[in-house]
Hints:
- The chain has a 5-stranded parallel beta sheet with strand order 3-2-4-5-6, with helices on both faces. A 5-stranded mixed beta sheet has the order 7-8-9-11-10.
- By secondary structure, the protein is an alpha/beta fold.
- It contains 18 helices and 17 strands.
- The longest helix has 32 residues, at 310-341.
Amino acid sequence: MTRISTRPCSFRASEMLRQGGVHPVLARLYASRGLTDARELSSELGSLMAPAGLLHIDAAAVFLADAIAAGKKMTIVADYDCDGATACATALRGLRAMGAIVDFIVPNRFEYGYGLTPEIVELTAREKSPDIIITVDNGIASIDGVAEANRRGIEVVVTDHHLPADTLPAARVIVNPNQPECGFPSKHLAGVGVVFYVLLALRAEMRRRGIFDAQTQPKLDSLLDLVALGTVADVVRLDPNNRILVAQGIRRMRAGRMHAGVAALFRVAGRESRSASPFDLGFALGPRLNAAGRLDDMSLGIECLVTDDEGRAWQIAQQLNEINLKRREIEAEMQDGALVHLDSYQPAESSTIAVFDAGWHQGVIGIVASRLKEKFFRPTITFAPGADGWIKGSGRSIPGFHLRDALDLVSKRAPSLIDKFGGHAMAAGLTIRADAFDAFAKAFEAVGQAWLTTAQLERVIETDGPLEDAYYTTAFIDLMDGQVWGQGFAPPVFCDEFRVISQRILKERHLKLLLERNGTRYDAIWFGHTASLGERARVAFRLDANEYNGVTKVQLMVEHAEAA
């Protein structure tokens, strides 16, 4: 079931914003997203929260400055997704600019698993013999790996944003806004955001030591295209602080001031960087980088972001594009297979989905979980075979069901069921024995039954209500495109009643509509939907500027429609 609702909006807050000089429609959109002060709209770097608020960041800066001064060897151990890749490239570029001797290693996820494991420490020691290991976008759960590094006399700096367990690793320094007692006002930094902050603090420490001054210090703002890409692709909440990081990165992309690899990814995805948007980062660039870590080895993605050679960057971007096409094929097959598994599935009867298939590919289960969750609107975990009788699961959730906490509860109720797990509210991963699948599915469903109400299992399309006639224009679309929308700061969706003038099916998959309201007609398209509408419909839609034969017209992208 899907229903359309309208976001509540405080008239007072929207009036205050309007009086502060904000466009009247934007004032309403912002107020309904919880914004009350025009100052929170600043996208200038000067408005970023100060690094000092992050627990232990000064200790990290002093430790790294000392290490650089002593000429110590550092190795970055990255996670294998887009946030990990951008965090690794950001750390590598930033540390090298400050004079560090630094290299990176990205373990193959299928051989070594997730995070800084003892095996990865051994591999790193063998191949890189570092004095210091720096984790990016992982490490907060790596108790054994850090212990192994300490045993070998390697010091570890953990930079991460994932939720910690009850015990923290015995690292030299941990910087993570989500660790206990960290008072940083934004808990939503991505892994790449945390690393960027560490670099800001390190540079300030090196200024204090007289190594740089304001003129000679490295320009860290040149890293913001990478920070924006990782932040959007990791689907963290775009709170005011993250919106500044993303807006600054997008501004650089639009001005053509980005790294060779980012430019090559735009080109291979067929997107224009001069009109870059968070949508491009999340749905065109991010998946191409992620594909490397899913099917192959993420060092290819990192090399794309680390090279300054445009020819090499273009070569890698094309390889990443090929891997991504292969990833889509595998995913489509797995999804069809999953739907066959779920043929007997009655959504009304169960509140969660858990599926396992011995033929599935570990690297793609997360995306398949995501697709099934979208289709059935249930917390979903898909499993693929791992090594020696273990299976690996990747889960995606719906609002109001904290996936990591749910797995935590399952493991407390049945301590032997889950080998290991970790993640966030909306996404998590775990490992169980293949023969424990049925028991796990049952235990997971029990948590779903206890935590979820029928209303929560209804998909709600939240809209911003009607849009005044005067704003169905390309100028208004440009104004909206100039803002940063994304996770936790949803892009505008309007809703109104229209007369359906005509409708036809396009390419057997999409519904092409001509709609009329107050005497004006609008082209509209509903992707992936073919059932026809009655003559009057209540339509939830996004505005889109559609260019055809050199003419740009407004068209409505239908999110959902119901009989009026």
